[in-house]
Amino acid sequence: MPRLIAAFVALLLALSASPAAASALPDGGGVLKDERFTELGPIVEAAGAAGLRTFDGIAVVEERIDRTGEVLDTYRIRIDVAARTVADANQIIAEQVAGVDELRNEYTAVIDGLDERDRERLESEADARSGTSAMIRKVASSDWVCPVDGEMEFRDSWGEPRSNGRKHDGVDIVAQSRTPLLAPEAGMVTFRWDMIGGRSFDLVTADGDYYFGTHLRSYGTEGDVEAGEVIGYVGRTGNAVGSHLHFEYHPGGKGNSVNPFFLIDTHCR
């Protein structure tokens, strides 16, 4: 727009400054011409062109402004949708949390209403289900190491009666004396001795699982060990009949023993 104004100002100045060279009507008549208009022709044309360019520029700017407005509207729509999505998600989570709290309260009320014997039975069944789940994970793991490194024989002797009314809480793996015993998983190994088991090892893993082995001839590495590290050797100490390893697995910690036969049968053949 400033260019258009400047052009018209130049036009007015030219009109006022141009000499009056008007020609009379030529003989024989004709059209009256003023040379000033002839001289100002280029200026008028330039002013017109400048005006057109200015209007074109304004149109381009207006178009860009319109496009920018459309883009901003699109972003505003997206932000609104995102905000609604987050709000809906928060509402769903809140409802689920409330549902969990309600179920927990109902479960607590049911447990509190049971007598001691029924409560113990339910807890025992829950531990058994948890142990079965842990056993499945260990059986499927390619990192689990067979605890006996050599030729061996074993069978499912879980639950068989033992002296003094005890039941067998593990599996006996028969192997030659001095056969290396390996840590089935990484963890902390400690050693101990008693009259029944003789030399024994306890292994506690990082996730709290507990392994127990007994009747060892001698000990291996104690403390922090990696899976597959030698932690002892097969023997017949304690009340053992013949050289073998009595092996137990307690998922989640000592006192929750489960039948380890499936572990041995999967990883030791």
From TrEMBL:
Pfam families: Peptidase_M23. InterPro entries: Cell_wall_metabolism_enzyme, Dup_hybrid_motif, M23ase_b-sheet_dom. Residues 167-260 form the M23ase beta-sheet core domain. GO terms for molecular function: metalloendopeptidase activity. This is M23ase beta-sheet core domain-containing protein. It comes from marine metagenome.
